[in-house]
Design goal:
about 150 residues; transmembrane helix; membrane; transmembrane
Length: about 150
């Protein structure tokens, strides 16, 4: 039963990470961390130690979502778009879907379980018909305009 619940939790965490946070959260911990707990629970069942199995299961079921919520950036990809729109200050902003929604950066700040990446946006201004490029720090919400785009743009 625990394996099914852990699998369901993992799938939910993966989906939230992909849809809301553009895969910024390092999922290695959420895939690797449950394995020792499941193994300890299995060993406890084989040895007839019901208390150990219960504690391992409870720990696993509570720690996984707790770690995920502690790792969440302050800004989602969608709210980053709103920050960019406010930064530009124009009503005629249209976001172009970039090939990748985040870019790797050299970042000295500490971010628990996060890749060192910023959200990436390509913006088409209807007034000037030119494209501007922005990145948003997911931890602070700081918006920065880039001189050129990434990925050959």
């Amino acid at each position: 039963m625990t394996v099914v619940i852990v699998f369901a939790e993992s799938v939910l965490v993966l989906l939230v990470n992909q849809e809301a946070y553009a895969n910024l959260i390092d999922m290695t911990w959420f895939i690797v961390a449950p394995l020792p707990c499941l193994i300890l629970g299995w060993i406890g069942m084989l040895k007839g130690r019901a208390k150990r199995v219960i504690w391992v299961n409870l720990t696993l079921l509570l720690v996984t979502p707790l770690m995920f919520f502690l790792a969440l950036p302050h800004v989602t990809y969608q709210s980053g778009q709103e920050l960019v729109s406010r930064h530009i200050g124009s009503q005629s902003v249209q976001f172009v879907a970039p090939p990748i929604r985040h870019v790797s950066v050299v970042y000295n700040g500490y971010a628990f379980l996060l890749h060192h990446e910023f959200y990436y946006y390509e913006v088409s201004l209807q007034d000037t018909r030119k494209h501007d490029y922005y990145i948003v720090n997911p931890m602070t919400g700081q918006v920065m305009q880039l001189k050129t785009g990434f990925y050959g743009q």
